[in-house]
UniProtKB/TrEMBL annotation:
InterPro entries: AraC_E-bd, GyrI-like, Reg_factor_effector_dom_sf
Transmembrane region(s): none
All copies of domain AraC effector-binding, residue ranges: 11-162
Domain of life: Bacteria
Name of the protein: GyrI-like domain-containing protein
A Pfam family annotated for this UniProt entry: GyrI-like
């Protein structure tokens, strides 16, 4: 068996400030072990509900993790969010939520989601090496989702900074 370690450029991060946005949101408590329960049903249901309500979608699905620490059994807050331009009629299944701007280290990953464990190890190694501190929030923005050819998936990882 061959193992490989994911490597990223030493200057892979872009430090930036995100913009405030409103989203149609699903919220739950989760662990790293239970995340797969929400793929792809929640995202599909968010898109369907936004369409039913006539909402203007302004961006791709985001998964927002609050209180995550890398421990597979640690429970944290998970929000799966579809950005929209404005709120509308009340949803039967989801809520409207405003997400504040935040300062983050951003990295664009093209490839398999199964690489995320190694990717996060490499990203946090670089984050701490460069003397940054995580604020307990991580966002994943799923710009390209391709279940048939998952190596084509593009995900922006945003690690919140103190």
């Amino acid at each position: 068996m061959t193992t490989s370690q994911l490597t990223i450029s030493s200057k892979a991060f872009k430090i930036k400030e995100t913009e405030t946005f409103t989203g149609l949101s699903f919220a739950t408590q989760a662990t790293l072990q239970t995340l797969s329960r929400h793929v792809p049903d929640v995202a599909n249901n968010l898109y369907a509900e936004a369409t039913r309500l006539g909402l203007d979608i302004t961006g791709p699905i985001q998964w927002i993790y609050t209180g995550i620490n890398g421990d597979e059994t640690n429970e944290f807050q998970l929000a799966i969010v579809l950005p929209i331009s404005q709120t509308g009629n009340q949803s039967d299944s989801f809520s409207y939520q405003s997400f504040p701007a935040f300062r983050c280290a951003s990295y664009s990953h093209t490839g398999l989601w199964s690489d995320f464990g190694e990717l996060y190890n490499a990203l946090f190694f670089q984050l701490y090496r460069d003397c940054y501190q995580n604020d307990g929030c991580v966002r994943e923005i799923y710009s390209v989702v391709d279940f048939e050819n998952p190596e084509n998936c593009v995900t922006e990882v945003q690690i919140g900074l103190v």
